[in-house]
Specification:
Jelly Rolls, six-stranded antiparallel beta sheet, binds 6-O-phosphono-alpha-D-mannopyranose, mainly beta, gluconeogenesis, glucose-6-phosphate isomerase, isomerase activity, binds zinc ion
Length: about 190
C-alpha cells in the first residue's frame, strides 16, 4: 500500500506542516533567572515570544520506552544586555539518553555541559549534532536571523529543567566587535 506521510517539513519556511503538529511558545516571563543582566531582562515585555517549538504528536506519551519524537525549535535573534537569546536547556529526566540536533536556518551555538565541562558547537544550516546522554543542552542564537534547529529524542527521555546555574557554568555574550565570547558565571 502506498501512503503519504501526514507531516511534511517545509524547506522554505523551516516549519512542519500537516496533521497533529503541536506548538509550544516560551516567552520572556518563562525565562526568569536565565539571563545575567537582570535589569535588561526586566525591561523586556514579559509576553515577548523568545522561541517556539513545534513537534509531531505521534500519539506516544512521554515516558513510553522505544519511541522517538521529532520537533523543530525556532529561537528569535537578540540579546538581553549583551547576552544572546537562548533556550532554557535541560537534562533528560532519564539521564543516559542522547539526542540529535540538525541545523536548518540561521546561526548559533549548541551548548553542551557534562560534569562542568562545556562544549559549544557551531550550528549552521546542515550541521548535525549528537548530544550524548548525561549532558545538559541548550541553543544560543548568535546570528541576526531566526535560528531553526530540528531535534530527535527518545519518548523515554523526558525533560529535567535543573536550575540554569547548575546546568551551565558558562555564558555567551556579544563582544564589542559583535562576535560571541564565552564567560564563566560569576
Ligand atoms: C528541542 C528538543 C525539545 C526541547 C526544545 C526546547 O526541540 O530538545 O525536547 O523541549 O528543543 O528546549 P527546552 O525544552 O530546553 O526549552
Ligand atoms: Zn533534550
Amino acid at each position: 500500500m502506498f501512503k503519504q506521510s501526514n507531516v511534511k517539513y517545509n524547506g522554505k519556511t523551516f516549519n512542519l506542516e500537516g496533521s497533529g503538529i503541536q506548538k509550544k511558545e516560551t516567552r520572556a516571563k518563562d525565562l526568569a533567572g536565565y539571563f545575567s543582566d537582570l535589569s535588561a531582562y526586566q525591561m523586556l515585555d514579559p509576553e515577548t515570544v523568545m522561541y517556539q517549538v513545534e513537534y509531531q504528536d505521534n500519539g506516544l506519551a512521554e515516558g513510553t520506552p522505544g519511541g522517538l519524537y521529532f520537533g523543530i525549535t525556532h529561537l528569535y535573534p537578540g540579546v538581553i544586555g549583551e547576552e544572546y537569546y537562548l533556550t532554557k536547556g535541560h537534562f533528560h529526566a532519564k539521564r543516559d539518553t542522547g539526542e540529535y540536533y540538525f541545523g536548518l536556518h540561521g546561526q548559533g551555538l549548541l551548548m553542551m555541559t557534562e560534569n562542568g565541562e562545556t562544549v559549544l558547537e557551531e550550528v549552521v544550516p546542515g550541521s548535525v549534532h549528537y548530544i550524548p546522554g548525561n549532558t545538559a543542552h541548550r541553543l544560543i542564537n548568535t546570528g541576526a536571523e531566526m535560528l531553526s534547529v530540528s531535534a530527535c529524542w527518545q519518548t523515554e527521555s523526558g525533560h529535567d529543567y535543573a536550575p540554569p546555574e547548575e546546568m551551565f557554568p558558562q555564558r555567551v555574550f556579544r563582544d564589542k566587535a559583535g562576535k560571541p565570547i564565552i564567560e564563566n558565571n560569576s
